[in-house]
Amino acid sequence: MHSDDEAARRIQLTLRKPWFALHARIKPTLVIAGRGQPAQWGIGTWQVPADETVVVGVFLFNRLWRFGRAEFALEPHDPPALVYRAPALPFLRGRMRTNA
C-alpha cells in the first residue's frame, strides 16, 4: 500500500484573467476530479493522483450563471503545469492548455 505522498503529484495551475473584461471582481472556481474549490487568480499548486488521468476544470460564476468553462484531461505523462485563460466577455468559454 502506498502512502499519500507516493501516490500523488503536485501540478501548477496559472489562472489568468484578461486585462480588460466585462466582468469585475469574479474569482475562478477550480474543479479537480469533480470536486469544486474556490481559487485565486495567479499561480497555485494542487495535489492530484500520480498514476491516474485527472480532469482539471475551471469556471467563473457571476451570481446569475457560470461562464468561462474550460477543462483539460491531465494524463500521468503530461507536464505538471497548466494555464487557464478567462474570456473577456461573460458568456464565452475559457481556454486551458499545458504550459510546456
Record the SSE blueprint.
Elements: E1 8-16, E2 28-32, E3 35-38, E4 42-49, E5 54-61, E6 66-74, E7 81-85, E8 95-98
Parallel strand pairs: 1-7
Antiparallel strand pairs: 1-4, 2-3, 2-5, 5-6, 7-8
Uncertain stretches: none
The quaternary organization reads as: single chain
The spatial strand order of the largest sheet comes to 4-1-7-8
Overall pLDDT score: 89
Distance between the termini: 32 Å
Estimated structural class: mainly beta
What fraction of residues sit in β-strands?
A: over 45%
**Number of helices, where a helix is a run of at least 4 consecutive DSSP H or I residues:** 0
What report would you give on this structure?
This protein is an all-beta fold. The chain contains no helices and 8 strands. It has strands spanning 8-16, 28-32, 35-38, 42-49, 54-61, 66-74, 81-85, 95-98. A 4-stranded mixed β-sheet has the order 4-1-7-8, with no helix packed on it. Strands 3-2-5-6 form a 4-stranded antiparallel β-sheet, with no helix packed on it. Strand 2 and strand 3 (35-38) form a beta hairpin. The radius of gyration is 14 Å and the shape is elongated. The termini are far apart. The model has no long low-confidence stretch (mean pLDDT 89).
